[in-house]
Amino acid sequence: MIQKIKGTMDILPDETPLFRYIEGIMREEAQKFGFGEIRLPTFELTELFVRGVGDTTDVVQKEMYTFRDGDDSITLRPEGTAGVARALIENGKYGDTMPQKYYYIMSCFRHEKPQAGRTREFFQFGTEMFGADTPAADATIIALAAAVFRRLGLKNVKLHLNSIGCPACRPAFRGALTEHFSAHTGELCDTCRDRLSRNPLRLLDCKSPICSAIAKKAPRTVDHLCPDCAAHFDALCKCLDAMGIDYVVDPSIVRGLDYYTRTVFEFVAEGIGAQSTVCGGGRYDGLVESLGGPKLSGIGFGMGITRVILALEQAGLATIEPVRPRLYIATLGDAAVPVALSLAERLRGEGAYVECDVVGRSLKAQMKYANKLGADYTLILGDSEIESGKAALRDMKNSEQSEVDIANFKL
Ligand code: ATP
Ligand code: MG
Predict the structure, then answer these.
(1) 264 within 8 A of 99, measured Cβ to Cβ
(2) How large a percentage of the chain has pLDDT more than 90?
(3) Is the Cβ atom of 133 under 6 angstroms away from ligand 1?
């Protein structure tokens, strides 16, 4: 028996309505903020992610699905931002009116250890806004994520906010970090020991218990911001306050990707287990330029759809009423089948969800099945109904029957 690849999922018809409901809210909220949908290739040149995500990140160092295609090295997209930035540059969109606002709902691929809330193919709702570097832009992106959680009714999702500064304040902070971690070189995991000289900021994001314990006592970015970054962060907080969006300033948030500058944030769902970050994002003012485009600021987030589902389940908000047929047409005898099919065809053409028997059930079994589907009405067609052109329409709620003209009745 061939089984699906570890860490992938089958989403069956009784589960897709929940996905569609959540994705519908994401699309509607993105629309309200003026974000347009972008659809991108599933795979890109590996180089895009090495440069766009950063070669000292967990994603690039450990998690990418990379393969050769002739002379090219290709990678299944592990995230969306680098691809959107590439598309912006490649399609010359940096020449259009700013800001450029994009959203996507797509699967991403990371070779990690599968567990609840962590799969190897996962689904992300992402947004990116280019060419807007004000605190108001940061507040707008955060407000969009918050609006999705509000619409979904999730009350226990908390916004954690931090600033990691810019290239101007980074050197001093890097120095302080290197000093802190160097005192613990012997205790660090192999990856972190290697990253210490290349990018000590990454060590703040390591998930190994020892490294994260050392990281807890590390210097805080917010204490090392240059005056511009400090003013930006302060103004963002004021915008969020004015919008009524609650947050906590959390110095442990640094984000896993290399291209972040200034604002970084995560939405954390309490009570859904270890994988509780339902959304992560931040400002990436260096990204477009590092991919060969012009100097252009950017900010965005990625929201994990299956983690949102875990949060909805935990809050008891994950049940979606199945769609029920308006009419079930039961048939008695072979002659009724084409009549039932043609009636169903007409009513579907008029917009109704109509079912009729396709497995040759007995009349009794058909009525039982109609009940199971939760049909609003049933109609029984047999030889005498076909002859008279009239049939009994039964209202399944109150069992009331009324005679209808088969050729003309409407639902
Ligand atoms: P984590 O720290 O949980 O590994 P991350 O920092 O690697 O997250 P991002 O790259 O910021 O994650 O991705 C944005 C969002 O996508 C995450 O906040 C999470 O909700 C979701 N996500 C990331 N990786 C996975 C995965 N393997 N399975 C399911 N959802 C994921
Ligand atoms: Mg990760």
Answers:
(1) no
(2) 83
(3) no
- The answer to whether the CB of 83 is under 6 A from ligand 1 is no
Q: Where are the domains of the chain?
A: 16-169+225-314, 327-405
If you take atom 16 of ligand 1, which residue's CA is the nearest one?
304
Total length of the chain? 411
Q: Under a CB-based contact definition with an 8 Å cutoff, are residues 254 and 162 in contact?
A: yes
CATH superfamily label, 16-169+225-314: Bira Bifunctional Protein; Domain 2 (3.30.930.10)
Angle, CA 159 vertex, CA 320 and CA 298 arms, to 5°: 100
Sheet of 43-45: strands edge to edge? 43-45, 72-76, 66-69
Please tell me the number of the ligand nearest to residue 274's CA: 1
* CA 187/CA 170 separation, integer angstroms: 25
173 lines ligand 1 (CB under 6 A): no
Cα 112 off chain centre by: 18
Bridge partners of residue 359, in order along the sequence:
none
**Residue 356: closest CA among 335, 323, 391, 331:** 331
Q: Do domains 16-169+225-314 and 327-405 have the same CATH topology?
A: no
Q: What is the token pair recorded at 275?
A: 């994988």
Q: Is the peptide bond before 219 cis (omega within 30 degrees of 0)?
A: no
Give the pLDDT confidence of 146-180 residue by residue, as tens digits.
Answer: 999 999 999 999 999 999 999 888 888 889 989 99
pLDDT (tens digit per residue) in 28-57: 999 999 999 999 999 999 999 999 998 888
Longest Cα–Cα distance in the chain: 93
Q: What fold characterizes domain 327-405? A: Rossmann fold (3.40.50)
Indicate the pTM of the whole model. Answer: 0.92
